[in-house]
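for the recovery benchmark. tokens below, seq after
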């Protein structure tokens, strides 16, 4: 322990069993954690890599402050409900790992709140404005990713008017928003902040030679520093993420919005309903989960919780055999809320077909578009035969991708596509770039080095296009020898 260690830092260094508190027998304190816990300034903000333990660190900070100071509120604000619960799980495990002589007793212990006998509380909730907690320590986790970041930040600052501290930490999410403004101060100054910067190469968990990396890594390309200083797991992650995504997620880079077809602001604007906990949706990553999710959505339809008319899109895996399916609701107010997302990784053709069949049988799907390129051709043909009129195969060409992309962007700009707060979906939407070729034609695609090929984006674009697309050739559709118009509009 250093002579200048803060009370909270000294408390944790002296009394916390770190391996037990982290479930890691080899756990060591990171340098940035020591700086964070020793920082007594009013405002602090950290630009950080993903998975460096910042959420755990603010939980440890809250436990120490609560144990040392009576009647102190510590307020966590997280990106969603599950992350809110995770902060309390961390805090509970940290309390359990304290030496018995200083371990506080809890009088309230639930998923979103802990209260100690001394009256100090740890309260955790999804990203919403912070109200009514005077002299509290406020911790804004992943601030850059909040749909209403400015409103939440504005509400949080007055909480510390008569005491307490404000801490914000996040991986970047585009070159905009409150987090970007405070960190980089491009327009106005935020002079009261202590700023910290935690890319992967300054952490023991990712870097195999921190002393050398801190000197050399900032002056190297991403690939050079990953290959020279990254541990094996980080190298594999680098090889399986788009370059810009890796730089944003692990190297604290604020990616320029000018390169993206759909901006972070447009994405976040459509996540506000989900952020408020008012978007009913289901997701699945295996066949069994998909079957259950379809049943759950069908039950929500029957209960009147979601729309009785739906549309869907399916991008059949061209990247590591990953298939994405997205189902949207169709409202009478031009809204297309996200209701179902299914990701199938290396799943056999017959199992994929069974999932689509159940969607068509159990859900009120009016139109369903399937990518018919490459591996999707057989799927599209089979499902068109089973569900004529409703299912259509769509050919990916640059002109068709432009049509779908323009329609999707317009929907997002008009706030007509309520989306879940799902980082993978958000990043894939944001990964699409519009480029003009030498022949002056527009192309819409991901960077050449990206691995996911934006499968979720194209499934979403296909689903949205079902509502805008003209009906099938009416000369081919006859019921009792009379032409039928099936347009949903």
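predicted aa per position
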């Amino acid at each position: 322990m250093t002579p200048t260690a803060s009370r909270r830092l000294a408390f944790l260094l002296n009394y916390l069993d770190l391996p037990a508190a982290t479930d890691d027998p080899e756990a060591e304190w990171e340098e940035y954690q020591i700086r964070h816990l020793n920082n007594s300034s009013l405002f602090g903000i950290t630009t950080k890599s993903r998975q460096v333990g910042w959420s755990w660190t603010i939980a440890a900070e809250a436990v120490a402050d609560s144990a040392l100071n009576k009647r102190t509120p510590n307020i966590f604000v997280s990106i969603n409900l599950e992350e809110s619960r995770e902060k309390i799980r961390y805090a509970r495990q940290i309390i359990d790992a304290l030496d018995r002589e200083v371990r506080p007793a809890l009088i309230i212990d639930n998923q979103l709140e802990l209260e100690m006998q001394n009256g100090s509380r740890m309260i955790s909730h999804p990203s919403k404005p912070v109200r009514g907690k005077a002299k509290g320590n406020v911790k804004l986790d992943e601030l850059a990713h909040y749909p209403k970041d400015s409103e939440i930040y504005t509400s949080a600052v007055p909480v510390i008017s008569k005491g307490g501290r404000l801490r914000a930490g996040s991986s970047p999410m585009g070159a905009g928003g409150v987090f970007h403004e405070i960190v980089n101060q491009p327009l106005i100054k935020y002079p009261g902040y202590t700023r910290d910067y935690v890319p992967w190469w300054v952490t023991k968990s990712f870097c195999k030679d921190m002393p050398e990396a801190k000197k050399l890594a900032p002056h190297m390309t991403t690939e050079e520093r990953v290959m020279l200083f990254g541990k094996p797991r980080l190298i594999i992650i680098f090889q399986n993420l788009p370059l810009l995504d890796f730089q944003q997620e692990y190297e604290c880079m604020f990616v320029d919005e000018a390169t993206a077809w759909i901006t972070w602001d447009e994405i976040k604007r459509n996540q506000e309903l989900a952020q408020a906990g008012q978007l009913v949706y289901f997701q699945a990553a295996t066949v069994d989960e998909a079957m259950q999710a379809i049943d759950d959505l069908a039950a929500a339809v029957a209960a009147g919780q979601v729309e009785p008319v739906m549309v869907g899109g399916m991008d059949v895996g061209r990247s590591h055999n990953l298939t994405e399916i997205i189902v949207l609701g169709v409202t009478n107010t031009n809204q297309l809320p996200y209701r179902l997302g299914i990701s199938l990784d290396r799943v056999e053709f017959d199992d994929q077909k069974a999932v689509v069949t159940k969607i068509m049988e159990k859900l009120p799907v009016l139109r369903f578009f399937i990518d018919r390129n490459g591996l999707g051709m057989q799927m599209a043909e089979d499902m068109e035969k089973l569900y004529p009129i409703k299912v259509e195969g769509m050919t990916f060409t640059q002109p068709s991708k432009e049509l779908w992309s323009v329609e999707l962007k317009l929907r997002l700009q008009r706030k007509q596509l309520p989306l879940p707060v799902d980082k993978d979906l958000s990043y894939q939407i944001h990964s699409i770039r519009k480029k003009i070729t030498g022949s002056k034609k527009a192309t819409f695609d991901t960077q050449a080095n990206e691995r996911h090929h934006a499968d979720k984006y194209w499934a979403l674009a296909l689903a949205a296009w079902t509502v805008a697309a003209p009906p099938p050739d009416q000369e081919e559709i006859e019921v009792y020898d009379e032409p039928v118009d099936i347009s949903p509009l």
